[in-house]
Every structure is written in C-alpha cells, then in structure tokens.
Design a protein that fits this description.
single chain; 180 residues; two-stranded parallel sheet; globular
Length: 180
Amino acid sequence: YVGRLEPLQGVDILLRAVAQLEQGDSVKALIVGGALEDDPEMERLKSLSQELGISSLVRFLGRLDQRELPTYYNAADICVVPSYYESFGLVALEAMACGTPVITARLPAIDEVIRDGENGFLFEAGDVTDLRHRIVGLFRDRASLQAVGEAARSTAIEHDWERVLPVLLEEIERFAGPST
C-alpha cells in the first residue's frame, strides 16, 4: 500500500484481509505513507495489526520520497489500493507503470483505468473477503500475476503526459470555452 494514512484510504481493510490469509500464503504487507510518530491513524493501524495478530507480517515504512517509490513498486508482487474514495488513482497508475499488478476497490475513477482481470483487479470497496480472494488468487496463479503485470505496464504507458495532456486541455477548453 502506498498513500496517505487516513480512514478513507481503507488500510484497515487490507490489514483485515491479510489477517484472513492462511499461514502458508506467506504474505508480507508494506504500508508506505503517514508519519511514523505522532500520527493517530498510524497508531490506530499499528494497534489493529497487533489485535489481528499480524504485526509480524506488516511493516509501516512511513512517508518516503517520491523518487524511492519505484523501488518499492518494483519489489512488490502486488499493490493494493483499498480506498473508499479516489479522485483518480495515481498510486494505481504508478504501480502499473512498474509492471506491478494492482488490486483496487471498485470506484468510479479507478474503473476507467483498471479492466478487471486484464490489467488489474477490482474488489468491492470495504469487502475484506473479496479483497482476500483477489490476493489469494493472484499468489496462487503466478502466470496470471505476470500477465496482468505486463498488461498493467502497457496501460500505464498509454497514460503518459504526452498522450494525456492534449486530451486534458481539450476537456478544459470544452468546459471553459475557447480562450481569447
């Protein structure tokens, strides 16, 4: 997981899904974001991981410099975006650019980029069991994991600034009217 730490981001859903995994699934969760000290949400999530008995499976890394993120995306088998709301889903696109499969909550902005089962996976927002099934499915089907990662990278390339900016400017002009 990469992002802000606040309840709306649904990191607790990810932690609960990790707690439901079988011992043999050997999953580790890295949580990137938030302050390591004096952050009430960080403390809540750490306490939750202890309550769920998964503190040995979860590492809270705090905020990282943007330049460090590709290293973590590339090292991850999957990136989970469990949010209840996303305005666009930049984290998902960043992970996809690294060829990392994304499992994300089914949200309006996200499903414009993620094609379920093709270049990523969608689960019902807030549904711990659905998220767990997606995680287990990917770890048990390494060929699918690789194929989805390759499709994810291709999708991300389609969203580079050279391609997106003209479309964005066209939309802005359409709503704002022609410039004078």
